[in-house]
Amino acid sequence: MPQNPYLNVLFMAAAAVVFIIACCYGLGSLARWIGKLRGASLKKQENTFAGYFFAAPWIVGFLIFVIVPMAFSLYWSFTDYRVTSREPATWIGLDNYTQLLFNDDNFRASLVNTLYLTVIGLPLQMAAALVLAVLLNQKMRGERFFRMAFYLPVVLGFNTAVLLCWRLMLNTGTGIINQIIRSVTTAVPALGYINRGLIHVQEIVTAFFLGLNTGKFNLLNKVIEAGLPEANRVPLWVQSPLWTKMSVILLMVWGCGSMMLIFLAGLNNIPKELHEAAEVDGASGWQRFWKVSFPLLTPYVFYNLVVGMIAALQIFEPVFVLYRDNQPLVSSTISMVYYLWQKSFSHFEIGYGSAISWVILVIILIITVIQFKLQDRWVTYDIY
Amino acid sequence: MKRYWPIIKGILLYFFLTAASVLMSFPLFWMISSSLKTLEETNSPGIVWVPKHIAWDAYIGIFQNYDFLRSYFNSVFYVSLALVGTLLSIAAVSYAFSRVEWPGRNFVFFLMLATMMIPPQALIVPQYVFFNKLDWIGTFNPIVIPGYFAGGAAMVFLLRQSMAQIPKEMDESAFVDGADHIQIWWQIIMPLVKAPLATVATFLFVGFWNSLLTPLMYLQTIDLYTLPVYVTTLYNINNTVQPWPTIMTAAVLTTVPLLVVFFFAQRFILESVVISGLKG
């Protein structure tokens, strides 16, 4: 095995290709042989060989990288296993799970924080996507340019370099966002009141969620007692526990481009005649949107909701880049996946980490199933 | 008044759209602008939209920073290696799911779609232990090799949808001429799905280029760091003053390949996301 890391990976990649091709032939021949035993026609045997031959990379990968790891992690989740120590895993039954679900304040915090991102962030993200899609759907010149501009953040996405740029912009004192807020609110006093109102509402909501973390609502009382913030207040984006999650939500809203594309596809699929008929009947633009477009868009809303929720439950990069190592802020902002990473790879508690990953998996499955169950109540599929 | 309404509406529409695009692209502008500022300007209490004098210091500095250049090379190297293998295996698997009738196809396809529900993070812990057993920690292997096994069910789905739309007669006539499946896949089907392949390649590229979690776990030493991992080390919470111009210069150089790829591929992406995303 070559020591040079570049040659090493080239060598392994070549080995992997050879291995995969061998698997292709092996699996294909095996399937053909079984087909032959079952007395399939020659043409069918040929197709069986080809099918398994071409699908083999995925089938083998699924076994090696999904099924086997999942089985092991299920086993480890019932054990005390640390990868750094030489000791083998010791069976401890449900201890990891009871510890995790009932006694682990950090996990509880990560659960509440992720809930916050899902309950408050996701609707904001979808609303932004919908507004942009409706505006773009007016079929005017330059639509392509705007569409590109709105999709760009998705590509830049959660690249750490871009996240660091956000970190710079969100600085409380000298960050550009707060500087703009400051100059706008001093110039137009009315906007100042709106700004203070929004800050107040945001802080009350977040303080409530932080209260859920610990079970004590002191902070919430304090925020409410303090009343409307003073005139020169600005959001304390990446500085105060009351704002850390809002900063992540800001990033989510910024990256709403892929949801927007889905909505745009939905709007394009709505038959023109429906709008024309509604217009003849004297419906205003507002009514036409809510009574005609929106019901027909519900399958797309549903799709975005399912995909968006899975994504929101898996947030990692923004938390890592913005708040890593910042102890006072960590509990107000850690997401479930960040906690998983921290436990498994900073503390190397593999057994406990496995339990966390199974809990995340089960949460995602439950939420997705509930969404599919509830969809009959509000999603309209009639027209399609 | 009524006569002018369409014009007013048009002006309002453009106003909102322009404002939204400015907001959406603002981080990009700010990144470039900050990379050309001096340290004082990035920390100034007043708004500095564009630097007074363009300061190239950070760019000169970063091109002499050996760690940065090496992590850039590492990123390019690993992304190209992973991209080729992943794209080819995805194309092969999509062929099996779209052009061949074989027993068990529907079941395997369903399994593949079901894996999309599994968060990748649920697998990282056991995979880490597995790669540790193979002695692959501290090498590029764990971030390159798994892709070779058709990693990415969503991408297979996207490509399968496009391959399934090609008329069946295409391969039947080739069969008559004595071609086998491998020839048909490579010589007939692949050239017909160039645009979807470009889309998949773009998505894969963006995914690999931005990837943080797995490189962070497996690379371990600074000489193997890829860009996203290296860039985070520039920002250190313990610094009293962050070297913002340098960080933003690194950020600009990191995003350039993304912008270039997006610029050339946006035509494909914007269309095929919509086609395959829902109308499956």
Any descriptors?
heterodimer; A: 384 residues; mainly alpha; MetI-like fold; 2 domains; two-stranded antiparallel ribbon; B: 280 residues; 72% helix; disordered C terminus
Compact overview of the structure:
The complex is a heterodimer of chains A (384) and B (280). Chain A has helices at residues 5-37, 42-76, 95-103, 105-136, 143-156, 160-169, 176-187, 189-214, 218-226, 244-254, 257-268, 272-280, 285-313, 317-323, 327-333, 336-346, 350-378, and strands at 79-80, 90-91. By secondary structure, chain A is mainly α.
**CATH class of chain B, please?**
Mainly Alpha
The overall pLDDT average of chain A reads 88
**CATH H-level superfamily of chain B:** MetI-like
Please state the CA-atom Rg of chain A, rounded to the nearest Å: 26 Å
What's the alpha carbon Rg of chain B, rounded to whole Å? Answer: 24 Å
- In DSSP terms (H or I, runs of 4 or more residues), the helix count of chain A works out at 17
State the helical fraction of chain A.
over 70%
The most extensive contact between chains is: A-B, 107 and 105 residues
Describe the fold and architecture:
The complex is a heterodimer of chains A (384) and B (280). Chain A is an all-alpha fold. Chain A folds into 2 domains: 5-76; 101-172 and 236-378, MetI-like (MetI-like fold), CATH 1.10.3720. Chain A is 77% helix and 1% strand. The longest helix of chain A is centred in the N-terminal third of the chain and has 35 residues, at 42-76. Chain A starts with a helix and ends in a 6-residue tail after the last helix. The mean pLDDT of chain A is 88. Chain B has a single domain, classed as MetI-like (MetI-like fold). Helix content of chain B is 72%, strand content 0%. Chain B is mostly helical and 280 residues long. Chains A and B meet through α1, α2, α4, α5 and α6 of A and α1, α4, α5, α6 and α11 of B.
Secondary structure blueprint with pairings:
The complex is a heterodimer of chains A (384) and B (280).
Chain A: H1 5-37, H2 42-76, E1 79-80, E2 90-91, H3 95-103, H4 105-136, H5 143-156, H6 160-169, H7 176-187, H8 189-214, H9 218-226, H10 244-254, H11 257-268, H12 272-280, H13 285-313, H14 317-323, H15 327-333, H16 336-346, H17 350-378
Antiparallel strand pairs in A: 1-2
Chain B: H1 5-35, H2 39-42, H3 57-63, H4 66-99, H5 105-115, H6 121-133, H7 141-144, H8 153-164, H9 169-176, H10 181-192, H11 194-210, H12 213-219, H13 227-234, H14 244-278
Helix pairs in contact in B: 1-14, 3-14, 4-8, 4-11, 8-11, 8-14, 9-10, 11-14, 13-14
